[in-house]
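As a warm-up, study this chain.
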Amino acid sequence: MQLKRQGLALVELLAAIVLTSLLAGALFRLVDRSQRFARGAAELADQRAQLAVAAFAVETELQAVAPADGDLLSATDSAVAYLGRVGSAVACNVGAGTLDLAPATIASGAAITWWNSSPQPSDSLLVLDEGGRRDAGDDRWWHAAVSAVHALPDACLHTPFLDSIADAGKSGWRLTLSLPLPPTVAAGAPVLVVRPQRFALYRSLGEWMLGWSEWNAASGAWQGIQPVAGPLLPHASPPGASGFSLAWRDSGGAVIAPVPGAPVRGVALTLRGATRRVVRMDGVTAGHHRDSLARHIALRNAP
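Now compare it with the structure written out below.
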């Protein structure tokens, strides 16, 4: 009589264990590689995003700088101080030495005033003087310092720019200037308010970052540095390996020293960064991955 076998033989059990171990090991390696790839891809994406943010911030600011008008205050191969915009508006009332600016929000929805921060004494002001001729031959940006700033209720209320009923009670600004305005500056002239600002590399918690700061006239010092992007590579000499480097160029593309009066027409910006964490993924050498981004920025009014 033949008995029916129950269960598994020892050899079969051992074979099953070995196969299960091999399968588990292969699955573990697959999951580990997937996780390393995901972490590495996230690190690389963050690095490239940081470089793009830094390039956008610097390009947006510097393309509004006109060296011929004195907007470039100081510049090196790794830092730049300039007159940056804090606001723009349309002059709705013009006095001998004052300008009235409309509230930031008006009933019509028209954007005739914009402020990044409130105007303050010692800011610089530029107003477009169209001169006495009808053509653009005598147009110029007239410069003055802001000597006093006052909130002005019902600013510009009875002008064509506002609704005298819907905009009643809103406050704008009256700026007192260090010089009397030319008689050819009229209501409706564009106004720019600027203040010293700068970009530079700085070190924070062991990392090199691109920082931005603004001049505070009351304290006579730069305000606290605001981080823009990072981490970047550290400052280096020569600047060819720095995380933030600038090469100032003339109209022919030659590199020049950005001293006062120099014919600066553009700047070549290079940003270099490294990932915060070691990247381990197929096709990439294990380590802190480095990348760079370059931009050429044409400055305002550059021929």
